[in-house]
Amino acid sequence: PPYLNSLAQGAGKLWFGTAADIPGTAEQTDPDYLRILENPGNFGEITPANIMKFMYTEPEQNVFNFTGGDYLLDLAERYGMRVRCHNLVWVSQLSPWVTDVNWTAEALTAVMKNHIQTLITHWGDRCYSWDVVNEALASDGNFSSSIWYDTIGPEYFFLAYQFAQEAVEQTGKDIKLYYNDYGLENPGVKTTAAYNLVKELQSRRIKIDGVGLESHFEVGATPSLAQQVAAKQGFLDLGIDVAITELDVRFTSAPYYTASGEATQAQNYYDSVASCIEVGRGCIGITVWDFDDAYSWVPSAFAGQGGADIYNDTLQRKPAFYAIGEAITGV
Ligand code: G3I
């Protein structure tokens, strides 16, 4: 199949999207990369891999930089693609002015509120959705340590959504608010903890529209199709949407391009995408965490690992690409 987003659109109101680390990296000026990216048949959604994060958008306290985010939004809008804006409150990629100070809970809460509300207000519904809090949970289901949790306590999580909701209501626009994390792709302690966070937001009448299941996997070690269906169904049963937000399937060691390895990887991609199709309406999109191995985040994060994406490092489609097409069309 030639175009994965065309297929996804044909299968319903599903999108097929990608992360892009634009602007500020070699992707921005790579004509071969851009030829694939800038095609709504290929992608109906873009997630900025970095440029909307805290350290880039508020480099000094209350001094905001929207230039990079604007560039990415302009690019997406030129091709009719939606943007999942990413992210507002996370442990990583904070500015030194945030991490290098001993804040009181009150002062840091004010910092968080200002950051959340300024970004939501500025970009309005050019953002289809915001990942309000990113990766709050540890694998045991407790909140992870972060400057937000350690300073404010568990209430930081609920306050973040309350502040986001206030800003969305001020805009009068339809902007979805998401929780985004990894390790929610199969049933388990962490996934149950995420269900409980959603339920707690709902019981407090705080806006939560969906949960992003990152889906960063290792070849040959992904949850089964049935497990991925069950985990998604648990979120849908709460009356919210789910999306696959950061899908990739990495090899934990070379070689990355053997026929048998690529066949296993293709099956792993198939199962993840098929689980989204199988739960039906409510799983509203699939985003890969960039589409070619040359620009994957994996090798710089995990020495010796790679080959995670659906195009290889010379932008040739891998079996995983075709497997996604088959999962979408039900072939
Ligand atoms: O901008 C600097 C550049 O000036 C410098 O020369 C270069 C040298 O290391 O680093 C550049 O910054 C890098 C940044 O990406 C921008 O490309 C950082 O080192 C690098 O650590 C950072 O990695 C990002 C990572 O988040 C940070 O945790 C990845 O690109 C990004 O793909 C990744 O994305 C996360 C999601 O936000 C949340 N879920 C997991 C996912 C993968 O880790």
TrEMBL record:
Pathway(s) per entry: Glycan degradation; xylan degradation
Residue stretches making up the GH10 domain: 19-327
UniProt entry keywords in alphabetical sequence: Carbohydrate metabolism, Glycosidase, Hydrolase, Polysaccharide degradation, Secreted, Xylan degradation
EC number annotated for this UniProt entry: 3.2.1.8
Gene Ontology BP terms: xylan catabolic process
PROSITE patterns: GH10_1, GH10_2
Residues forming the catalytic site: 246 (nucleophile)
GO molecular function: endo-1,4-beta-xylanase activity
Tree of life domain: Eukaryota
UniProt cross-references to Pfam families, sorted A to Z: Glyco_hydro_10
Cellular component, GO, one term: extracellular region
TM ranges: none
Subcellular location: Secreted
Catalytic activity: Endohydrolysis of (1->4)-beta-D-xylosidic linkages in xylans
Protein family (similarity comment): Belongs to the glycosyl hydrolase 10 (cellulase F) family.
Protein name as it appears in the record: Beta-xylanase
Lineage: Eukaryota, Fungi, Dikarya, Ascomycota, Pezizomycotina
